[in-house]
Model the fold of this input.
Amino acid sequence: MNYKKRALISVAILTGCVQHRGVVVGLLYREKTKDVFTRPDGNLEFHFKDDATGYMMDGKPVFNSGYDQVVGQIPGKGEISRKFTIYFFELFEERGIPTDLVKSESASNAMVVKPAKLLGVENQAGDFKGSYGIYGLETVVRNEVMGSWWRRYPCQIPGSRLDIVEFYAKGKAGEPDILMVDDALVQLGIMNQQEMETTKNRTKQIGNIMHEEFQKRGFHFVDGKVEWGRELKTGNIILIDDLSPDTFRVCEGYDLDEKGICKANKQCIATDYRQASKSVRCSNCSGSVEVPGDFKRYIEAKNILSADPAGLKKLAEAFRL
Done:
């Protein structure tokens, strides 16, 4: 996706129109798990899809929200994603966290939201090869040692309790997201000091709310990411996009000891450190060869409900969605 085009939604070129519930909407852009349309009233409309991200193993899809590639579909996932987003966004609004939510189209997988400009900075080095603008600011709330946190800090025990908020900017297609330090956000003019602190505090509040909501239903909130933008009418920073199982990880069977370490971590978390490789076509033969790459750390949790079709259904039933 061209993030600059998405950021400047007020001047985006429509690529097609459809009629939904009597309202003519124009296709603005497509994302991996939803399509985004404009409406005559100036708002946007999300249409959630059953597409799911992950990776392929032995020719079969392994669903994992931490990956960017769509590998298949989970029937009913789009509707569940919409309902989760509505449930939590309404709860956040009640707790004083502003969102882009306008209303939900209950008879479909659609959600109407206020237009917002993505937080970012334009490319100021266009004459330099490899330069590009930064658009799409997300915060990640981490409730335990998992994922990229452990890959960066492998000295910690996987499954240990955390209370961390990180800022990320979305990378170009095929590239990882960019970890942003607090000072960089202010220095680049993406947000001022007060806005940065408010956004961080709101993210912690979101993490606490999600932890409480899942815990009272017998689940454990591992981590999640949310996106922020500036409401076009007010210029205020609000929570945007969606908060579906594509954006958070939840597990069950989580039990902390007195040191804050999960007692089941060795049974449900697998780690590795090995040399990566990729298959490339042989220039002197008709086949392909395996080319060794860099050594990488791997970490995978086996009981992430939000990445499994059966687990997704269990979560939906627990929330009566």
Observations:
- The chain has one domain: 3-118+129-318.
- Residues 3-118+129-318 form a domain with the D-amino Acid Aminotransferase; Chain A, domain 1 fold (CATH 3.30.470.20).
- Residues 39 and 157 are 48 Å apart (CA to CA).
- DSSP finds seven helices and 20 strands in the chain.
